[in-house]
Design brief:
By secondary structure, the protein is an alpha/beta fold. It has eleven helices and nine strands. The chain has a six-stranded mixed beta sheet with strand order 1-2-3-4-6-9, sandwiched between helices. It has a three-stranded mixed beta sheet with strand order 5-7-8.
Length: 265
């Protein structure tokens, strides 16, 4: 189960945490068509996993990903057709990731550039090593962005800085990323990075799963809807959550002054 050429999936059955690794370390986890296809297959496979509570996305080795595989770009005999096909597959992955019903964590273990920056921005939470760095990289090889980079990056860091990062190929450090709101947390290089990330994932896995799905739905439409329609959506979602066992457990735990034990029901 869960075997792919360029992606590794690890499932912890005890807590429902899945860790997805970009697995092309010799190419610094550069995105090629096969890797992105494997990513789409993997996310589709996870949809049928009823025990799934949280998804961590990271890279094998020292890199999250350096973005697109430029060596493969060079080999393309029909560049426009090649890049269009790759962009379509990248965007399929973004949509699958955003539609996932559980929270996603980008565990940025090293350099995060190009398309992988868009993938990280599409995750619900971003955490990075202190030695990580970030860049758009597209303009450096004469391309405009893909993978939602020009959509989510301005929403996270502001239009002015996103423009600077994309137009001028500006690279930012982990410290800058934290200060700008691109990442939620930086983790010291002295600590075991994934161990620290999994502590946060564990907290999520023990939370109210149905509420998380509805929270994600609301946040995903927050930039598209007007106030009145969004308030209507909030009313609909909170009614759904109020009908769950987790809501009753949350109330009881609050009144009993204890930690709630949510079951995702």
């Amino acid at each position: 189960m869960f075997k792919y050429e360029n992606i590794i999936l690890e499932l912890n059955e005890s807590n429902g945490i899945v860790t997805l690794y970009f697995n092309r370390p010799k190419s610094r986890n550069a995105f090629n068509f096969n890797l992105v296809s494997d990513f789409c297959l993997a996310i589709n496979d996870l949809k049928s996993l009823k025990s799934l509570k949280c998804l961590i996305i990271t890279g094998v080795g020292k890199y999250f990903s350096v973005g697109g595989d430029i060596k493969e770009f060079k080999k393309a005999k029909a560049p426009q057709e090649f890049m269009g096909k790759l962009a379509d597959k990248l965007h399929e992955g973004i949509i699958l990731l955003k539609d996932l019903c559980v929270p996603s964590l980008a565990a940025i273990n090293g350099s995060c550039f190009g398309a992988s920056l868009g993938y990280a921005c599409s995750c619900d939470i971003r955490i990075c090593r202190y030695s990580a760095n970030f860049g758009a990289a597209f303009a450096g090889i004469g391309l405009s962005p893909d993978s939602s980079t020009s959509y989510y990056l301005p929403k996270l860091v502001g239009l002015s800085l996103a423009t600077e990062m994309i137009l001028l190929n500006r690279t930012i450090t982990a410290k800058e990323a934290k200060n700008l709101g691109l990442v939620s947390m930086t983790i010291s290089d002295e600590k075991d990075f994934l161990t620290e990330v999994k502590k946060i994932a564990l907290q999520i896995s023990q939370g109210p799963t149905i509420a998380y799905k509805n929270i994600k739905d609301l946040l995903n439409i927050s930039n598209k809807s007007d106030l009145l329609s969004h308030l209507k959506s909030e009313s609909e979602k909170i009614k759904i959550c109020a009908g769950t066992e987790d809501f009753q457990e949350g109330i009881d735990a609050f009144l009993d002054k204890r930690k709630p034990v949510f079951k995702g029901k």
